[in-house]
Amino acid sequence: MSGDVVNLRQFRKAKQRADKEKQAEQNRLTFGRNKAEKTLTKTLNEKAERSLDQGRLEKPKDQD
Predict the structure, then answer these.
(1) pLDDT tens digits, residue range 13-29?
(2) Is residue 1 part of a domain?
(3) More confident of the two residues 8 and 2
(4) CA nearest 31: which of 23, 43, 47, 45?
């Protein structure tokens, strides 16, 4: 009827370590890029935005 005995202090510490590791992984993905990768991403985003704007059809201002 009784389950395994769990030391709550150890459980909390293990959970904290897992949470910190998850946050560290996210930070590595977000901030762990070199300058060339950042520049490439920025350039590709700007190019995509320009091509999207070029295909935009704008209404004449006289018609509402």
Answers:
(1) 999 999 999 999 999 98
(2) no
(3) 8
(4) 23
